[in-house]
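Hi there. Long-time user, first ticket. I'm pasting a complex I've been working with (about 623 residues overall). I'd like to know whether the download I got is complete or cut off, because the file seemed smaller than I expected. Thanks.
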Amino acid sequence: MLQRLALRAQAYTPRVSLEPPDGLLLEVKGSLHLFAGVAGLRLAVADECRHLGMPSVVAFAPTPRAALALARAGRPHAVLDLSALTGALAPLPLATLGWPEDILERLARSGVRTIGAVIRLPRAGFARRFGAAQLAALDALTGRTADLRDVVRARLRFRRRRELVCELENIEAILAALAPLLAELGTFLRARQCGALELECRLGHRHSPPTSCLMRLAAPAADAHRLGELLGERLAALTLPEPVSDCELRTDALVPYRPDCPHLWRPGEHGGGFSGEASGLIERLRARLGEEAIHGLTLLEGHRPEKAWSRTAPPAIECSRTPRRYEPARSHRRPLWLLPAPQSLAAEDGLPRRRGPLLLLGEPERIETGWWDGGEIARDYYTAADSHGVLLWVFREREAPHGWYLHGVFG
Amino acid sequence: MDGAPKLARLLEHPAIWRGRGAARLKTLASGFAALDEWLPGGGWPRAGLIEILAARFGSGELYLLSPALAALTRAAAARWCVWVAPPLMPVAPALAAAGIALDRVAVVGGTRSLWAFEQVLGSGACDAALAWGGQPKPRELRRLQLAAERGRTLGVLFRPRRAARETSAAVLRLGLTPLAAGVRITLLKGRGAVRSTLELSWPPGTPGRTRG
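Hi, the file is complete. Here it is re-exported in full:
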């Protein structure tokens, strides 16, 4: 509730901080003249609270803690001058400060019941008995020291909807209808120096549930034109159940955007970066071919051919790196291509055939086990040449019925 | 008076166009000395489309390219090396063993391979791109060639041998026939080159290629 109120209060000042359980602090010095002074601002804030159905006490003071103490004491004062602050605070009960119970109790035992009485205590003695932290709190209350506070920040999102004048079916027309929303999004992002990582386009229909089109970007984007192009690719692949009656654009949480500065060198030249080109490429491919369109490769620790590698995200984009030394290959004979699954081969007299007899070359390589993940194998791998001179990687099951399989092709 | 130096000086005139000399392409060492010597310009073109027409998949076409790909992906400012619609899965350990840096390799899947290939070539994010399949029309090949020049990418398109009859805008077209421990390469088209044949034998240690 307080959070919601804080977001509303940001209409009056950008610097709003929470003071749970019941307080909300607004730094309004700069906003006073915009809302017709203290009286006008008090009225506006009180109105806002009444609108939300919450009783409120609005107090103004030169320090945040003083304003909080006044409001918690139920005194809607407006103290604008630091010199008048101590006088206004003096009669307030100590409980309004929100200090720990045991400290308040010890103060009460020594007859200190109001803020004025606390301020009159000798500072050195107070610090010795109640700790430096308490003295600092007192100093912040009276404005001796500055009181820095965390500001509530709203999560920025963009969400705009547009009802169409007539129902549209044609993708071009829908894109044209989306253009003002995209332009608005571009302005929104530019003004906040933010970029979107996810953009959702919802197309509403008269009867069917809305069609949603979610676009994930490889890098934050803030350029409405580019977003529009990508969205166009995405929409072209969509099948709509019925004509579109309204459309809506939403972004997920925004991230800070650092615009690309044009490089002096072209990508790849003298170490010039190519991050813009690469992320653009990834997005174009994903927009047209789907999320799985592009992937990278990585090595895994595994001796079985199927488990020695895996797919990864597309390669990272570094601007420059140190050139790698070429490590000479270990002498293992692996083909450059692997079939998705071993393909059974016909056999004749115990030798495999594939469009004619296969000629087995060299010594077999035995690859076995894998009981720990259920992928147990027991195979003897051979290099085989077919009648056209193409080299294949075939294996023979070690267990009966000793079937022959094709598993790879040397490139 | 000796005529040869005079003639050489005369031929340096920029207005004189000579067949072999026109092949002043920026090239890339192929890793095979005999091949470098034979290829027009002294290696693979640094940018542009080349076509490799193999009678069968697995005639040694990748072993022909892998030293150059290894050098490209290991360079300091290496861009990507993208495999577009490979017919089977490339095996990461074998690529690494051939010296190709895997953190520069990306694979683009399945459908619409020609469109994806053109995007990859023209993006400027890749040093090399390999593509399989598709039946490009001459006009599409021209687009691919232009995209490769725009993106300064070496594009390699693998096609069946029968495509040799069609016209193509590729910078270089090679036909490949596997031999017992090597490969026979036929130059079908090259800038400033005449049709010729080279028999290249694989260096010792090429996986699966050398016997005994």
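A couple of notes from our side: Residues 67 and 97 of chain B are 11 Å apart (CA to CA). Chain B touches chain A through 65 residues (CB under 8 Å).
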